[in-house]
Amino acid sequence: MGRYTGDLIEVSNGPAIRHGKGTYSYSARAEEKGAGEEGSEAVTSTSFYKYDGEWRNGVKDGKGSFTLHDHSVYTGDFLDGEMTGTGRREYKDGSWYDGNWRDGEREGYGVEFLKEKEMRYEGIWRGNKREGKGKLTWGKDQSDFVEGVFSNHRIQGPGVSVTRSLVYRGAFAGGVFEGDGVARFRGGEDGATLG
């Protein structure tokens, strides 16, 4: 069941609509039996979200904070009911994304940090994927990295990879070394010329 508190605007042909500042929260529980099998257990699911911010003509529009069903929180811009503009989404596990959004997806420049993997990506996103020029770092001190152009989350084409033991400059395909490139060990010894 949903609940709204905040500003409303009267309309001549129906109930008042959300317009201005306000908070809407929704919570529902659903119980579902198994796939029609006799003796199958019921599964209970809870749906929850909360939006606190600006409204325009009944939809989220402007600045706001949105708590989603997975308990992640997005704070930033909304347009026509969608996360669009700049904003930050923080997840329960400590991971986050801060950057540009369009229609609820990462789009344009942004920075993502994945806490469990100690991984950070800074660069271009398209359709919620790493897609364009960027740099992916990992490890506790974030000193290991790959930098170049990403396609579908993986480095593709010319780029650089630096790890504790190896520096590689050259071609990548699907996130791995492929084609022409030079690999050198960090200790100064010559590595291999690939290609």
From TrEMBL:
Is Repeat a UniProt keyword of this protein? yes
One annotated Gene Ontology cellular component of this protein: cytosol
Name the SUPFAM superfamilies on file. Answer: Histone H3 K4-specific methyltransferase SET7/9 N-terminal domain
Which Pfam families does this one have? MORN
> What keywords would UniProt list here?
Repeat
Bilayer-crossing regions: none
Protein name from the UniProt record = Phosphatidylinositol-4-phosphate 5-kinase
